[in-house]
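Quick one: structure tokens for this chain, please?
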Amino acid sequence: MGSCLCGVVLRAFSNRCLPCGLHMRRASKTTTVYSPGCPAAARGEWHSIDAKLRFRSAVNRRNKKRTFRALWITRINAGARQHGMSYSQFMGKVKANGIELNRKVLADLAMNHPEAFKAIVEKVK
């Protein structure tokens, strides 16, 4: 006995499978066969614009973390070089002295509170 697509299952199938083939169906009026609509999804083509956007948003959430880390490193480097140290020297000495401030906080101090950042640089020198 075959399975039947009805109700919620049919709606999920239609939403998942049919948009990829733009609701293409075979010409037979007696039976509706959905197979021409499905191969696009099987080939890995995007079956809806929402799926593509969801995928890209997941990628971009990871890229945002990468971008902000690069920004923080740039700001810390600029602040450290004003006091005669490179970024790598500064971060090495910060870790060696046991100062547990992350890059986000150090970048904020270097940008918005230069006197506090100078105190940290003086402490690690």
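Residues 20-26, 34-43 have pLDDT under 50 and may be disordered.
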